[in-house]
Amino acid sequence: MELLQPLGDQAALAVCRDERAALQLAAAVRRLAAPWLVDVVQAYTTVAVHFDLDRITFAEAAPVLRGLAASQDATAGPDAGKQHVLPCCYEMQLDLERVARHVGLSPAEVVRLHSATEYTIYAIGFSPGFPYLGYLPTPLCGAPRLETPRLRVEPGSVGLTGRQTGVYPEARPGGWNLIGRTPLTLVDVADGYFPLRTGDRVRFEPINAAEFGRLLGQRL
Fold first, then answer.
1. Using CA of residue 55, residue 2, residue 198, residue 26, what is the dihedral sign?
2. Alpha carbon of residue 189 to chain centroid
3. Residue 111: phi, psi to the nearest 5?
4. In whole angstroms, what is the distance from residue 69 CA to residue 65 CA?
5. Exposed / middle / buried, residue 50 (Cβ in 10 Å: 0-12, 13-18, 19+)
6. SS (H, E, C) 122-169
7. Do residues 212 and 92 touch, judged by C-beta distance below 8 A?
8. Beta bridge partners of 44
């Protein structure tokens, strides 16, 4: 752990050396299942640990968190999260050719590389349940965001930009390059359905439009 500091009066923010260390720490805090623990929010190299101020203070929580961080094996990988396979219809794209031109590959090669990679969820945010997935294979990296974001991106749209890919669980404005769409429901806010969490692994499985229609609306 590089740094541990208060985040308001009911949370601690740990800054870790890299994404792997942050995933390890987040998993260790969750396993601790302490009665004072309210939530653990990991995002790339940081971990926010929210606690019940009636049960513990930052000064009391800090040595516990430092101990957990120190006990992690720097050479080990993060605890394996759940593995998810997301069907993705790459026919339902808006920017595949744009991405292909930018990276100097054919659209078919973009699809092959994108779907052949297993991604880790390093953060969830922007909108409820939006998974930030890393990292794209090197040949696919570098596509910039759209100069003018779309006012509406359809639910399930799979996008990429820079080194990352992700999925829009709900209709939202967005500026990522859209290369496909999954038919699955990834979020139901009213029902409290959020199946994805940081540390989970995601792989995309190409499907055609007919299969998209058959699976539309099913939950992950």
1. negative
2. 17
3. -65, -45
4. 6
5. middle
6. EEECCCCCCEEEECCCHHHCCECCCCCCEEEECCCEEEEEECEEEECC
7. yes
8. none
- 74-102: pLDDT as tens digits: 666 556 689 999 999 999 999 999 999 99
Give CA–CA dist 15/5, Å, rounded.
9
DSSP classification of residue 189 = T
- Distance, in Å, from the CA atom of 82 to the CA atom of 199, rounded to the nearest integer, reads 8
Cβ distance 144 to 161 under 8 Å?
A: yes
Q: How far apart are CA 17 and CA 92, in angstroms?
A: 38
Residues recorded for the chain = 220
Percent of the chain with pLDDT over 70: 97
Question: What is the pLDDT, as a whole number, of residue 72?
Answer: 84
Residues 6+ apart with CB under 8 A from 173: 149, 150, 151, 152, 153
Helices (H), 33-138: 58-70, 96-103, 107-116
Helix (H) / strand (E) containing 185: none
Structural domains of the chain in order of their starting residue, each with its CATH number:
3-70 (3.30.1360.40), 83-215 (2.40.100.10)
Give kind and range of the element (H or E) at residue 184. none
